Amino acid sequence: MYKNFLRKLFPYIRPHISKLVFASLTMVIATALETAIPEMTGQIVDNLFQNERDQSQSLFFAVILFIVLLLSGIFALISTATSSWVSNKVIMDLRVEMFEKLMYLPKKYFDNNNTGNILSKLTFDVEQIAAAASTVWLEFLKSSVTVLVLVTYLFYKNLELSIILLFILPIIFLAVKKSSQKIRSASSMVQNSMGDMTHLLDENISGNSIIKIYHAQEQEKNKFHRFIKNVRQQRFKVDVTAALNTNLINILLGLALSIVVFSSSISLGMSAGEFLSYFTALAFLIKPSKKLININKPLQIALAAGKSVFDLLDQQEEPNLGKIKPKKVLGHISFKNVYFNYEDGKDVIKNVNLEINAGETIAIVGPTGSGKSTLIDLISKFYRPSRGEILIDGININDLENDSLRKKISYVDQNTRLFNESIFSNIALGQIDKITDNKVKSAAKKAEAIEFISELKDGFDSLIGENGSNLSGGQRQRLAIARAIAKDSPILILDEATSALDSKTEKLVQRAINEMSEGRTSIIIAHRLSTIQSSDRIVVLDKGSIVEIGTHKELLENKGFFAKLIESQFD
Asked: What is the mean pLDDT of the chain?
């Protein structure tokens, strides 16, 4: 466990090894100076308080003591500052790599992992790892050096007494070993619970209106209480286990101090200064010993967090084996004996054969769960067919480089996703440094969005809020359509693109869509009759299979599945 964790963490620490070595050396110097205090205390007692007082000697000891404490503080400060720099740099590097990894993970990863757990990895878990990267290491180094120096000093001062105290160490070791597994297990459960809690918070913040309208506050409060209670219980286990170790150490060290007091006063014949030096050194052992025990807690937490973070970083990125980067795409799309299934092995797309001519407008209709959106995801290479092949202009899409293919596709879906930036940035998404102002304004005009944009105080520079919260549903939809127009791709995919529009706005936007569709291959998923009437052909899906293909008029005249669908859903 430790070896694997260190092996994966080391690449992030390697660039900063020199700084860590410097921080370690300065911490060792600070610690060495600090551990000189017991001997100095004994010397002060024997030389200043047991003999005739001498002003120059008193000044000498006072100055030396001050210099030792001053230098110890300076070196400790330098070490802590350097360590903090390294720790925060490791956090930044990990988060950057995690974010970049998320950009290239396959869609199924996001289908199988909720948002809260993913957010928890980038926020909570990575912080715990960074603690192990530098802070825990320095604390371990400082405490270890302190313990080593003081134990050596104790043996030097009094061998017989130190051998008696040595028998306490195996008990401490066993206590630490026993608690490690419990702390790691509980820490892992804390991280899982934090992910669940973060996901619930995300759902409640984004779905606040739905919760209110359905009066689900109590239901959500109860769910949150369960999650937060679980976090509390698991953290309690971690803290209690660590506290038991700490208190056991306190008891054992208390026993050691008692033995020193008794033995030194009865049989060892130590001077006042020697006793004070020995007793002070033993007392100084308490804090670093406790810290060494407590280091086990953040270390075990870091190990559990490391598993979570490195599991994400170890995920296989979306396959991108295609090498072809076509400069121009006409938009002819062919499905040949295409099947697709998710991990459960059940086919959701079955033996689809379909030719979509370049520049043709195709509508795909069917009941919920018939496979419409999955078919679209296959074209975009978000999923790959289990069997069969999909070709664009005669080239298998598996041979096309992912980004090159997706640059040729514009997409508008019913769950409009906008970003908390300006209207201009949202329309120019992905081409902010290349697109002209005129092209953005032209796209907004074609999407019937220019009127409401011009009414905003800052126009195209207006911030739209989280996911367009400052805009109406229809305005958000029109911005998404403007974004697709601005991209100017040869293949256009519209998934319920007019679902959030009123009848008047829908007519305006439909006109824009019709204009935008000219000369492009357009695939429209729709439920509204008005959206599909002007399509060149309509493809009817049911249970993953194509059951009918034809024009709107032909399908109605056939009085088949489509006609029944119109009768039941599109009235």
From this structure: 80
